[in-house]
Amino acid sequence: MEINKDLIAASSTPIVLATLAKRESYGYAILKHVQKASEQKMEWTDGMLYPVLHRLERLGFIEGKWKASTSGRKRKYYRITSRGKSQLAEELKQWQAVDATIRGMYPTLRQSLISPSII
Amino acid sequence: MQKNQTDQLEKQISQWRNFLTNRQVIHSNDVAELEDHLREQIAGLVKAGLAADEAFLVAVKRIGNLDELSKEFAREHSDRLWKQLVLTSQDTSQPENRNHKETIIAFGLAILAGLLIKLPALFGLDIDHDASFYMRNVSFFVLPVLAGYFIWKRDVSHKTAIGAAAGLIAGAIFANVYPFISGGSTESLTSLHIPIALWIIVGMTYAGKRWGDMAGRMDFIRYTGELFIYYVLIALGGGVLTAFIFAIFNSIGFDLDPIVASWIIPCGAAGAVIIGSWLVEAKQSVIENMAPVLTQLFTPLFTIVLVVFLATIVLSGHGIDINRDILIAFDLLLVAVLGLLVYSMSARAPQARPGAFDVLQVILLASALLADAVALWAIISRISEFGLSPNRMAAFGVNIILLVNLAWSAVLYVRFLRGRTVFLQLERWQTNYLVVYAVWAATVVILFPPLFGYK
User: Fold this and answer.
1) Is the CB of A85 inside 8 Å of chain B's CB atoms?
2) A chain contacts of residue B39, beta-carbon cutoff 8 Å
3) B64 vs A60: CB contact, 8 Å cut-off?
4) What does the pLDDT look like over B115-140, one tens digit per residue?
5) What span, in angstroms and rounded, lies between the C-alpha atoms of B39 and B45?
6) Interval B371-402: pLDDT, tens
7) Chain B residues with CB inside 8 Å of A48's CB?
């Protein structure tokens, strides 16, 4: 199963914020974390993560800081701000509402989707 | 990895880095960030058993198509786009043709504006004798052409184009229907405020669909500043040119005074607005914007002057000597401070942390507010003595409008310095406030003449 592009774009903000809510991180590690958490279902084009991070930084939801990595290269680490945390709470509420709506329709949906073709 | 493999990989990575660096919208810091990502990805893949060159290819592919990536970066960092215009592939298909066509159109429109300004002369209205007519109407010879240029260039919607035309016509009506008493102050106030009220219409055509966004309006602010600078430069050059015309033709016994006064200066001044706008559009990619550079230079100087001024008031105990023009002087001070604020903002990376320059801006804002408050206090206490003439009322209104803007900007700025808000809020405040200037200018044009009996 592949998740469609619009859904990936729409979910990028809460997913990145949720990843950073646990601990500060950098681009590559965020991507790996998301792949693992989604069991490889969320396939982001790697480069596209960075404009998302920069947008969240501009909006003040996360803060970036250049540090030396273990390999000696400089690496930009991001951490969530308090604004970011309240944004995350807000986004989660919205996703739950969407999720609940779809779930509420699920029993009837399952009948109409499954009955004609499969059974 | 073996040594020659590593060397090969380094070579490939540096090639890739060069590719990326050539995309001007992706800055060196972003390249470093993406390169770190690429290297991590390669290391992971090599660990999983891929050869270095295979790992490189896979990692590059995962980073994604560079055209799409630059477009995505450009969307997020539109300020960079403005500084180093890299209108992406869709526009680069026939850049030569388009540039060529645009040059011809811009010069054609400049000539049109130059001729339009001579149109009233056909009906016997002469610049010397009917100066007040020209003062009130000069906007209507230039701004429609300028708006037309942007309507063509931005391919704006019909709705915006019709709205712009309606606004310009409404302006022309208010400039000409009132029975102004000749030489009165309401007439000169109208002349002064009409271009300000109508400038926002140029903004709507300039920004097109992006007028609703903050970024679109910010670009309009940038454009306004750059146009002003180009205009001043063109005017200086024009001055030199006319001086030469006088001198050399005088030497062979021709007096060109009448031609210069009635043709070269007015037509040149009108055409220069279009040429200046075209230059701003065309040269965005060539030079760093000038307005922000000038702000960086003058913000410290203005701050020092204002702080010394306030200190002198306190130490010497001298109050502000109230006279009739004091309000205008302080209005101009606030305009200058606002310009410094807005143009340093327009060049600032919005996600940058508060720095020393931001602190300087706050000191500038605070000292300007304090100085203006002192002046305003002194004026209000003696307003009955002077009476409320239209000029004083207009100057007073402008002062209040600017004071409110700067005071709230100072509050937002301090909150930003303390980490309570993001810089975006300041930009949003400024871009939303553009409407206030236009509304005030329109109020002066529409209400002041009847209110003060057209005097």
Assistant:
1) no
2) 71, 73
3) no
4) 888 888 888 777 777 788 888 888 99
5) 10
6) 888 888 877 777 767 677 888 888 888 889 99
7) 64, 68-69, 72
State whether residue A79 sits within 8 Å of chain B by CB.
no
Residues 6+ apart with CB under 8 A from B377: none
Angle between helices B356-381 and B326-346 (to 10 degrees): 160
Q: Say how far apart CA A26 and CA A53 lie, in whole Å.
A: 10
The CATH number for A107's domain is 1.10.10.10
| Residues B176, B170 contacting (CB under 8 angstroms) | no
Q: Which two tokens stand for residue B380?
A: 């209000």
State the Cα torsion B107-B110-B115-B118 to the nearest 10°.
-150
CA gap A11, A80 in Å, rounded: 17
Q: Which of B382, B386, B368, B387 is nearest to B330 (CA)?
A: B368
pTM over 0.80? The answer is no
| Cα distance between residue B38 and residue B40, in whole Å | 6
Kindly state the tokens that stand for B219. Answer: 């670009």
For helices B185-207 and B131-154, the axis angle rounded to 10 degrees is 10
Strand (E) positions, A5-71? 25-26, 62-68
* Rounded distance between C-alpha atoms, residue B324 and residue B383, angstroms: 10
Q: Tell which of A46, A48, A62, A71 to mutate to test the B interface (max B CBs under 10 Å).
A: A46
Region of residue A68 (left: phi > 0; alpha: psi -120 to 50; beta: else): beta
Q: Which of A51, A58, A71 sits opposite B73 (nearest CB)?
A: A51
Cβ distance B424 to A58 less than 8 Å, yes or no, reads: yes
Judge: B72–A28 Cβ closer than 8 Å, yes or no. Answer: no
Show the low-confidence residues of chain B (pLDDT under 50).
84-94
Tell the residue number behind the tokens 């306190």, with chain if given. B314
Q: Do B36 and A75 touch (CB under 8 A)?
A: yes
CA distances from residue B406 to A74, B313, B331 in whole angstroms, order as listed: 39, 22, 12
CB count within 10 Å of CB B344 equals 21
In the chain, the amino acid numbered A20 is L
CA B202, B204, B209, B210 torsion: positive or negative? positive
- Work out how many domains chain A is built from and give that number: 1
What domain range includes position A57? 5-117
